[in-house]
Amino acid sequence: MVSYIAVLLAKNQMSQLLDALIHFCKEVHGVTLVAPRMQICFLIGLLLNADALISGRLDDLRESFSPDDLIIPKEQRKGLYEIMLERRLDVSASVRAEVLKAMSFIQNDPITFMDDEHSSKQLSPLEILRLHFRDESSDCQMVAVKTISVTAKEEIDLMVDMALSNAETKVRRAALSRLAKDVDLKALTIAQRMELLKSVMQSRETSIRCSALDEILSEWLKVASDRGDSISTEDSPADPSEYCFAPAKLLRFLEPFNDERTSHDLMVAAFRRCRENLHLSNLEMQQFVKTLIDNASNNTIHSHNYKNLLDRRMSSLEQANAAFVWRCMLDYCKLESTSETDWMECKYRLLPTLHTFCDFIIKFTTMKSMCDGGEAASASRSFTLMQFMQILPCFDMEDTAGKKSFRNLAESILTDRKLDVSRELVDCVIRHMFTYIWPRPEDNDEALSAICDLTSSMVDRSVNPNATVQMANETISIVASVTSADVNVSLEPQEIDDDTLLRCMKIVSAMLKTNRYRVMNALLRGLLENLVEKCVVCVNSECRILAFEAMGILAMYDERLAFEKVVLIKDTLELDDDLKPTSLNILCNMCLLHGYTSVAKWFAGSAVDFCDPRNDLIRVFLEYVEDENERTSFAACECLCKLLLSETRDEWTNVLATLFLKAFDPRTDNNARLKACLVAFIPTYAESDRSHQLLLVEAFPEIFGLLRNAVLEGLFTEKKLSVIGSCLVCATLKQSRNTQCRQESSVQSILCRKILAAIEGDPDPEGHFLPVYCKMLSQLEVSEWEDIEELNFFRDKAEELVDVMKDMEASAHDINVLMAFSRSLNRRIETLENSSKKWQPLSSPTTDELAVLTEELHLETPIKGEQKERSVQAAGRRFVHITSIQNGQASTKAISSKPISSSTTRRPPRIVKVKGQDLKKVLMEQSSDPIAGTTSLRTALLTPVPAQRLRPVLQRAVKTPAVSDFYKRDLIIEEEPDY
Q: Main site of residence (predicted)?
């Protein structure tokens, strides 16, 4: 109020109060106390804002401004703004936050605050707010996020980045709220919308996953419905048509083709939201379905209008969207139906019979328009067909006629060469066939024979398109036989075209991926020899990849086959770039199933030079970790992670060091799948077993040896080195292990010995690593160490190194950290010594007599002699302790459970138990951005969710707790589930 009055008086030529306030700001803004600096910044912001308001410069209706609009003189404005620029770099986050609030008042002021000659070099209020999006204080980030204007694309992009990758949950929540309420849905790109949705729906924080999603969904449904604010009026009666139209219209702003899972989850949430707004949540699901059908448009598919999808007037995109909404509606009904009867009623309203539905799909696939259009139309039709296949599990498969119709439909889709079917569609069809047509293990032979018949019929039609009788099934042969009618025409074998081979290979690959065949038989061997091995040398790269995957699966059934194919895989790695990821996965799965030692011998073969890296299997994996191709690099890293989880070898410290540093490499940030894999692996590996932590400790010299080379190349900053060291300490904490592994001793005493040796070997105060070593020592869990002799050695060595560092004039901070570590060791030694004295057995005639009498007692109990002896000894020690206190042999202070500490000795700091999840968040937090704020081991960070990946076809069969946990926590790179 005072600032507003001062500016108003100055406008009426009474500037004494304004001059006094400005003078006060100039005199007091640099005081030592934080509170006055905060108030001065706030006052300056109010003065500048009042100037803009009273002069009308913030009025959007005004088109031009003149110097006469200035109430505060130009020189005074310049002085106030310079104070703000100086205080924006204040050491106190509270002062910086007030500066940002003041800047928000004037961010839309069109008048510059500096001279014209300096205005181009001076930061504007809006630019300052942008810069403080990277402030190391979350409070300053919150102020910038909440107050910045989000009308321009640059600010919108910054807000999206904050919502996706900020380290603080409250900042991400505020950014999501601004994006939902203040940014038009149409102003976001399709990629930004999908990334935001993916980040929100897969978040671990309830405040984001629930409340933020609800807020985003509410605002986006308004925009999608094209009905303004009418849909959000809570006091007005609900209009069913508004809510029933909204989910289908929202789909226009999503990307179900490229991110089907996220779009599906959002549509389900949209239906749930609509049901709540219609006040039908407490009623059965069928009531909501009835309301939806009665009020929605003709594009909302149900049991009475599903044939509208055959209308040629509908575009392929409209068909795809309508089918997707139909499927999402069915999934929502199945998910939240109140009873089986309710679900049956929903199916009655939404679905025809299975037989009718299969006939409908056949008509859809045979439409002339299915073969028309370009690549985009073809993709839309394939997507529509995929939605139909995912609707099939909603039907009752006990219907005999319906099941027969489904089998005819499946065979028609698989063998129709006019349809452009994807691998995913073939996988889905084959999976449904094995689930519903051949559900039992006893049906495996029948299913394999039927699949061979399908592939044989396709080969026959390819060679003899006019043939009316199929040739006898000889499993399948690439060099097809000729019929008797063609003998006189040509006696040469006819080769099968690549499209037919690819379709056959898709079918066989999908069949093997069902994991129903685990023993090699005659039919499988026939498929291997007549189809798979021939497709390995096919010109089509997709066909070669599928053939290699199938060969790898078959090799898992037969060790002899695996031995024979290793040489082929080895040669393929050197010759075919497209097959490198698949070849690495096959080798990894062979190692997991047949043993690394055996596969490594097969891989080396009869080579004369066993030192050649090309003959060392583990070196081959390491070589491809740095491959330029992202898929190859990811495959190599994932294979190494699996191998390390499956077995522990002392000679694999270089492998562990490479993977550990790869997680922090700035170049890894560009490969989202690889980053996610490593972030999931390192905490899982460290917490699963003590031997894994011990291997991490043994890898310490190699990790820092690689770091030295990386620092010379400029890959890591000093701040990043400190984070790497802290993560290594965190990964080796005893408290970070699983509960069943915490009984074993800590490995950090061994790590301490290696760190002290590293400091002794390179105590250069000018180097990059001495501060890192000292910080690592300060973070060790000294309170878990029990060996007094070892603790004394560490203390003496630390004190010796302190003297060395003083002589070499190292930084005072490093010396103080090392001295603090020495004091913590000393306190631990005192604690252990006091504890041992407290419980030391004392000899006296009374205690000796008690021990003799106790041994003479013969209790009729099932306690074994060894256990009884321990019990007697424990009882004796307790009695000795109590007797010694009563006899005056222990002072009153000794009765206390706390160790004795002098008044000059500081209490040891509380040990913070760092969990494996903290380590994972720190790993995800690493960024190559030099402006990024300081990292913390306690920082909770939600990163942008990486693109979906399809898990390698060859799933390993080794079942260990560590690996199971690795796959459970590998959430952002899991394969898409079936809906």
A: nucleus
Q: Which two tokens stand for residue 132?
A: 């403080």
How far, CA to CA in Å, does 808 sit from each of 764, 766, 930?
8, 10, 31
In this predicted structure, what is the pLDDT of residue 762?
Answer: 78
**Per-residue tokens: 9:** 């008086």
Contact 917, 516 (CB under 8 A): no
Helix-helix angle 93-105:74-87, to 10 degrees: 140
Residues 6+ positions from 729 with CB-CB distance below 8 Å: 748, 751, 776, 779, 780
pLDDT in tens, 940-959: 322 333 333 333 333 333 44
- HEC letters along 405-448: HHHHHHHHHHHCCCCCCCHHHHHHHHHHHHHHHCCCHHHHHHHH
- Please give the Cα distance from 82 to 771 (Å, whole number): 37
Distance CA 795, CA 790 (A): 9
In the chain, DSSP finds a helix count (H) and a strand count (E) of 45, 0
**One-character DSSP codes across 878-901:** HHHHHHHHHTTSS-GGGGSSSPP-
Q: How far apart, in whole angstroms, are the C-alpha atoms of residue 220 and residue 963?
A: 40
**Structure confidence at residue 368 (pLDDT):** 59
pTM, entire model: 0.76
Residue with tokens 């919150």: 142
Structure tokens at 525: 């061997």
600-606, long-range: CB within 8 Å, 24+ apart, which pairs? Answer: 602/562, 602/563, 602/566, 602/567, 603/566, 603/570, 605/566, 605/567, 605/570
Which residue in 510, 587, 660, 645 sits closest to 967, CA to CA?
645
655 closest CA partner among 638, 670, 672: 638
pLDDT of res. 908: 42
For the purposes of burial, counting CB atoms within 10 Å of the CB of 847, is it exposed (0-12), middle (13-18) or buried (19 or more)? middle
What are the start-end ranges of the H helices in 106-239? 116-119, 125-131, 138-147, 153-165, 169-182, 190-201, 206, 213-225
Q: In 3-state terms, what secondary structure has residue 329?
A: helix
Residue found by looking up tokens 């040891």 in the block? 908
Q: Are 786 and 748 in contact (CB under 8 A)?
A: no
In angstroms, the CA 458 to CA 445 distance is: 20
Counting every residue written for the chain, the total comes to 979
Token code pair at residue 263: 């779009």
CA distance 958 to 62: 72
> Is residue 480 helix, strand or coil?
strand
What is the C-alpha separation between 104 and 108, in angstroms, rounded? 8
Residue 900: predicted pLDDT: 33
Give the Cβ contact number of residue 964 at 10 Å: 14
* CA dist., res. 275 & res. 290, Å (int): 12
b/e per residue 542-581 (b: at least 16 CB within 10 A): ebbbbbbbbbbbbbbbbbebbbebbeebbebbeebebbbb
Q: Which residues in the chain show pLDDT less than 50? A: 60-63, 229-237, 472-475, 478-492, 608, 842, 847, 850-851, 854, 857-917, 927-961, 963, 966-967, 969-979
Predicted local distance difference test score (pLDDT) of residue 844: 53
Nearest to 434 by CA among 418, 422, 445: 445
**Nearest-angstrom CA–CA distance, 703 and 141:** 35
Closest CA to 519 of 563, 474, 561, 568: 561
C-alpha to C-alpha distances, 642 to 620, 655, 665, nearest whole angstrom: 15, 12, 20
Q: Nearest 5°: phi and psi at 480?
A: -70, 150
Assigned token pair, 453: 């018949």
SS (H, E, C) 525-537: HHHHHHHHHHHCC
Q: Which residues does residue 480 pair with via DSSP β-bridges, in sequence order?
A: 494
